[in-house]
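Workshop exercise sheet. Pairs work together: one partner reads the sequence aloud, the other fills in the structure field after running the prediction. Swap roles for the next sheet.
Pair: D.N. / O.F.
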Amino acid sequence: MTEAWFGPEIPRWLAFLSLLSLCAIPAERGKFKSAITALWIAVIACAGMFLVGAAAALLLDQPSHVVRTLTLLGAVFGVSFGGTLPALRQGYREAEMRKVVAADL
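Structure field:
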C-alpha cells in the first residue's frame, strides 16, 4: 500500500464545502447572476474531478477513507449542484421577469 494522500481527519473539514450551497440565496433576488452561475458550474466540474480522483485512488490502492471521501464528495456535489442548476437558472429568469414587470408599472 502506498502512503495515503490525506489523513482520516481531513474529510470532516471538506464537509464545509457544502456551505457553497448558500450561494443560491442571491439567485432569488436576481443578483450576481454570472458569478453564481460560474461558481455552480465550477462546483460541478470539481465534483467530476473528485470522482476521477476517487477512481485513481482506487486504482492506486489508497486507503478506504481516501476513496470513500472522494467518491462521496463527487457524488453528493455532482447530484446536488448538477440537479439544481436548472432551478438556479429558472430562478434568475423569474427574477428578471419580476424586474421587467415592476419596470412596466
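Discussion prompt: The helical segments are 10-14, 25-29, 33-59, 64-104. What would you look at next?
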